Amino acid sequence: MAFFGGCSVHRQLQNNELNNFCINCKVAICKHCISPSSSSNVGISHHHGHRLLKIYRHVYTDVVPLDDIRAHLDISKIQTYKCNKKWIISFNPLPHNGSGSQCSNVRGTCYSCKRKLHDPHLYCFCCIACKVFP
Predict the structure, then answer these.
(1) Starting at the edge strand that comes first in sequence, how are the strands of the sheet with 61-65 ordered?
(2) What is the pLDDT of residue 101?
(3) What are 45-75's pLDDT values in tens digits?
(4) Whole-number Å distance between alpha carbons of 39 and 99
(5) Which end of the chain is more exposed for a tag (fewer CB within 10 A), N or C?
(6) What average pLDDT does the segment 76-101 reach?
(7) Where is the B box-type domain (predicted)?
């Protein structure tokens, strides 16, 4: 799923980046998709009242605060990170930086993508995608 691109429904409006996720519809949406007053469908918002997650960027990847996603998904065994004093979880594996962050050795790595885990005794997956779509 791609976030932070421009919304195709609201391309004529400013600040239309896809930085929300509608859990009900399983799509990336912009702030105008949520607000009935700025919707291009004459005051009708297809996502108003739906369960939504605010998506953030951290180290060039899409993340969601731990407290926000906990009610919607079993996040056990997914590695967490701290960013601006908040605990977050990454949607996708963090970018490979060439410093051995990916290993062929199964011990201490993500069960899905083989990326090194900070604490392999606590975590089995490095991100949501690796747990949900192994």
Answers:
(1) 56-58, 61-65, 86-90, 81-83
(2) 54
(3) 678 788 899 999 988 889 999 999 998 899 9
(4) 45
(5) C
(6) 82
(7) 7-55
Cα-Cα-Cα-Cα dihedral sign, residues 91, 95, 101, 106: positive
Q: How confident is the model at residue 112 (pLDDT cuts 50, 70, 90)?
A: very high
**55 closest CA partner among 27, 77, 76:** 27
Pairing of the two strands 86-90 and 56-58? unpaired
Q: Which helix (H) or strand (E) holds 5?
A: none
The pLDDT score that the predictor gives to residue 117 is: 93
Tokens, residue 18? 């896809």
Dihedral angle, C-alpha 117, 120, 123, 125, nearest 10 °: 50
Q: Which two tokens stand for residue 122?
A: 């606590």
Residue type, 120: P
* Alpha-helical segments (H) within 3-124: 31-34, 66-69
Report the alpha-carbon distance of residue 13 to residue 6 in Å, rounded: 10
Q: How far is CA 38 from CA 35, 65, 75, in A?
A: 6, 26, 34
Domain boundaries, given as residue ranges, for the chain: 1-54, 57-134
What value does the CA radius of gyration of the chain take, rounded to a whole number of Å?
17
